[in-house]
Specification:
By secondary structure, the protein is α/β, with parallel strands linked by helices. The chain is about 40% helix and about 15% strand. It has a seven-stranded mixed beta sheet, sandwiched between helices. It binds pyridoxal-5'-phosphate. Keywords: Pyridoxal phosphate, Transferase.
Amino acid sequence: MTDRLPGFNTLAIHAGAAPDAATGARATPIYQTTSFVFDDVDHAASLFGLQAFGNIYTRITNPTNAVLEERIAALEGGTAALAVASGHAAEFLTMHALMQPGDEFVASNKLYGGSINQFNHSYKNFGWSVAWADNDDPAAFEAAITPRTKAIFCESIANPGGVITDLAALSQIAKKHNIPLVVDNTMATPYLIRPFEHGADIVVHSATKFLGGHGNSIGGLIVDGGTFQWAGDPRYPMMSEPRPEYSGMVLAETFGNFGFAIACRVLGLRDLGPALSPFNAFLILNGIETLPLRMQRHSDNALTVAKHLSQHPAVSWVSYPGLETDRYHQLAKRYTPNGAGAVFTFGLEGGYEAGVNLVSNLQLFSHLANIGDTRSLVIHPASTTHRQLTDAQKTAAGAGPDVVRLSIGLEDPADLIEDLDGALSA
Ligand SMILES: Cc1ncc(COP(=O)(O)O)c(C=O)c1O
């Protein structure tokens, strides 16, 4: 063996995994147990005191989850990772490690709607506030920074698709103000974009989507880039101050460039509790083994379907950065040269009624509120996820009455096109 690092395809299959030491099982076993027996009293004490790595209780660590954590850290190029129960839990535990009551963060205005809700409403209960900035205008992020700002948050490819974020520009601003850049890399996955290579400090995922990839398990991941200097920085006491729970240990000093991941685990996950079931970790690991193949096929299929729709008389516009005419095409070429992902929106000449008719008449596409499945998925936001908003609010959120969102699956693109054509003419 040489010192050369394995390639992405190899890491997707092997990183973190080895034949099971006890049984020789080649696939990663599902360690479906709540707890782990200590060798002796001293071993137990060293585990509880964070003096040794090992398993105590599945809310905090589990060997199946550990393989998933190591694999995503390798694929993203981070120092360590934490598996949690959902993408929202990953966002929440990240902010819990960064923020104190009265603190603020700046977030892109182009995010998954659930994240917008979480930031605007639920986070208020913790005394955290969000300032929104135009995703296309890095200067707007800088203008929103105050002395209480603890992070910048964005998505690499923004849900509902069609928007590519200039990560390097946001990273420059974050570095200038010495705050971490947190990137939700759900839509891109590390196959399309590796945010740490563009200056991100922390990556979060909804593993529910393309990482798991088969629409069968909810999960989330936090990846520590190991880049941010928490030690000695009083603005981030979870990492930089002595922890009374651990006999005055300073996590950033003891754990160095994975101190953030440890804080998320031993302060966030341990105390707040959104643990990932080992069974879901197993399913997500299986999904990741084929991630490179699937993401390429998702992106290729999406481009074929987007091109077809852009020529269709019933379609007024298509927002997919893979299209050469798209306003984000140059950013897509720079950040995601292998393809622009699976999810995009388009507009129907016939407005709201046409949107409702389309979702009712599609046969192969499933009408549901998810993305990142092997199956192709469709939703008409104005009649579902955004129905409580006024028309003006819907349009501002990119969910106007005419908008349809697709998550293109792995079927034959000719079948997807036939299904769309049939439903558009119905
Ligand atoms: C980009 C993005 N981030 C986070 C989430 C939340 O993830 P989860 O549903 O796993 O909690 C979603 C869910 O759709 C998402 O699309």
